[in-house]
Design brief:
By secondary structure, the chain is an alpha/beta fold. It is about 30% helix and about 20% strand. Helix 2 packs across helix 9 and helix 10 runs parallel beside helix 11.
Length: about 400
């Protein structure tokens, strides 16, 4: 079976996560607020402007972003930990702490303009290194190819469907949109592949969590948007999908659909837990893809795609690199032994790098056009990928 198309059933506990009370952590260093479990074990009290928390000592403190998708992934991790270890069954044993990130707080700028690397992870890195959390749960496509010294990422949960989903009230396929149509996407990878097949459309910046982007779409400020199918499935929101795009139509991002769990280097107690959760086939594929991305010095600012999967015991990889306007696309494919995953990814990246020459010159300075005006324009962000009401 192809790793990229593994489809576990949606997690019921993740859908019920909204019943929990969440006290949001601020930026690095403000660890005075913590998650209070829905069982009522914890109690938050306001004292002289500070928040104090009274709760049973957690065995694992889990750091996460605060978007609904990030919380769904955090609760899935919590559920799997409880299923594997009896001592982690009590609700208070795994404490979820929400940490605001730069990428979630600044929604009116393109990812490239913000810098691209570590936008959704650096604040979590600080909390992890400070010992405020024991593990961090990430969407792997948001994790830079380099990790902060003192941390490791030894665990990937079993991967979801990696394909992109097209959502539109107006058209069944983005490739059939008439000239002049507007597609909302913050991804240069998606923009490049869309424009390569339908150069008459226009792509505009479209940021925020899944719910925020669907709300903007509902205001008809764009004709359609693209989201990761994995995220929609994890939140039970498949009803919004117009069509799921195949790899030959839209090659997904490196590590799309994979959840990664990061911990401190040398933390043997935590490693015992993560070893039991790791899905080897997913980790092999993700390691290959990230090696490909690293060879090209790729990140959120670059139109690069790559997917690996195990097919009958063989690791099969395909990748591409493109100009932002879709006028040039270079593709590569490789296959080999699973134990050579990193080497396969590196070789594929080196092959494309040789074809395009200087990476910066190849990409140029083109960016996605500014986001159109919506009811959320100018509003204050909530730090969770959405806007304050």
């Amino acid at each position: 079976d192809q790793v990229g198309h593994t489809r576990p059933a949606p997690n019921q506990s993740a859908r019920e996560m909204l019943s929990a009370t969440i006290c949001v952590l601020g930026l690095a260093g403000s660890a005075s607020a913590a998650f209070v479990g829905s069982s009522g074990v914890g109690r938050a009290q306001q004292r002289h402007g500070d928040i104090s928390i009274v709760m049973s000592e957690a065995l694992i403190k889990l750091g996460t972003r605060g978007s609904p998708l990030a919380l769904a992934q955090a609760y899935e991790t919590k559920r799997r930990l409880a299923a594997a270890f009896p001592e982690l069954v009590p609700d208070e044993a795994v404490q979820i702490q929400v940490i605001k990130t730069t990428g979630d707080m600044v929604l009116d700028k393109a990812l490239k303009e913000l810098g691209g690397k570590g936008l959704f992870t650096k604040e979590l890195d600080v909390q992890l290194l400070n010992g405020d959390v024991d593990i961090c749960v990430h969407s792997m496509k948001d994790v830079p190819t380099w990790l902060v010294p003192g941390t490791i990422l030894p665990c990937n949960l079993e991967r979801e469907d990696t394909r992109d989903a097209w959502i539109s009230p107006n058209c069944e396929s983005p490739f059939d949109l008439p000239a002049g149509s507007v597609v909302g996407t913050a991804s240069l990878r998606r923009q490049a592949q869309l424009l390569a097949r339908n150069p008459g459309i226009k792509c505009v910046n479209f940021r925020g969590n899944v719910q925020t982007r669907l709300k903007k779409l509902g205001e008809n400020v764009v004709d359609g948007t693209l989201l990761a199918n994995a995220g929609l499935r994890r939140m039970g929101m498949e009803e919004h999908i117009t069509r799921v795009l195949e790899f030959d139509e839209m090659l997904p991002a490196v590590a799309q659909g994979a959840i990664g769990i990061q911990c401190r280097e040398g933390d043997e107690r935590v490693m015992k837990y993560l070893d039991a959760l790791n899905h080897p086939a997913t980790k092999i594929a993700v390691d290959c893809e990230r090696a490909f991305l690293a060879a090209l010095d790729g990140n959120c600012r670059t139109p690069i795609a790559g997917q690996a999967s195990l097919v009958n015991g063989e690791l099969v990889f395909q990748g591409l690199i493109a100009k932002c306007d879709g006028t040039e696309i270079y593709r590569v494919s490789r296959a080999g032994k699973a134990e050579d995953a990193v080497k396969i990814g590196q070789a594929a990246g080196a092959e494309l790098k040789a074809k395009i020459g200087n990476v910066s010159d190849f990409f140029g300075d083109e960016e996605i056009a500014p986001e159109p005006v919506s009811s959320m324009s100018g509003k204050t962000t909530d730090g969770l990928g959405g806007y304050s009401s």
